[in-house]
Amino acid sequence: FAVLDVCSLGRAKKETDMSKIYRTFKTVFFYSILIIVVPVLTFFGSKQWLFDGLLQLPNVSSNIYSAVSAVVALHVALFLFIYKAYFTVSTDNRGSSNRVDKVPQKED
């Protein structure tokens, strides 16, 4: 029975590690797509509908304002990614008071 428990424990640990890896990949993939797509959509959307359509600005002014709005959107997406990465606590570190792994101490 002890061998069976060790095998099931190892399998459970492997599944837990794989779920952590998948969760991390999913988060990074989501924010990568967000960082790529949102500024592009913001540039063309604001140019087409806001600056060319609603405000009827000249072409150069419309491009400049659209570029500024795309840069702002990029910074918002980057801020969201950095906030998520910095303030996310992994499940195995919730019990400890700090996020740094403890170094084993030498016993005399």
UniProtKB/TrEMBL annotation:
<protein>
    <recommendedName>
        <fullName>Vacuolar ATPase assembly integral membrane protein VMA21 homolog</fullName>
    </recommendedName>
</protein>
<feature type="transmembrane region" description="Helical">
    <location>
        <begin position="64"/>
        <end position="86"/>
    </location>
</feature>
<keyword id="KW-0968">Cytoplasmic vesicle</keyword>
<feature type="transmembrane region" description="Helical">
    <location>
        <begin position="28"/>
        <end position="44"/>
    </location>
</feature>
<comment type="function">
    <text>Required for the assembly of the V0 complex of the vacuolar ATPase (V-ATPase) in the endoplasmic reticulum.</text>
</comment>
<keyword id="KW-0256">Endoplasmic reticulum</keyword>
<keyword id="KW-1133">Transmembrane helix</keyword>
<dbReference type="GO" id="GO:0005789">
    <property type="term" value="C:endoplasmic reticulum membrane"/>
</dbReference>
<dbReference type="GO" id="GO:0012507">
    <property type="term" value="C:ER to Golgi transport vesicle membrane"/>
</dbReference>
<dbReference type="GO" id="GO:0033116">
    <property type="term" value="C:endoplasmic reticulum-Golgi intermediate compartment membrane"/>
</dbReference>
<dbReference type="InterPro" id="IPR019013">
    <property type="entry name" value="Vma21"/>
</dbReference>
<keyword id="KW-0812">Transmembrane</keyword>
<keyword id="KW-0472">Membrane</keyword>
<dbReference type="GO" id="GO:0070072">
    <property type="term" value="P:vacuolar proton-transporting V-type ATPase complex assembly"/>
</dbReference>
<dbReference type="Pfam" id="PF09446">
    <property type="entry name" value="VMA21"/>
</dbReference>
<comment type="similarity">
    <text>Belongs to the VMA21 family.</text>
</comment>
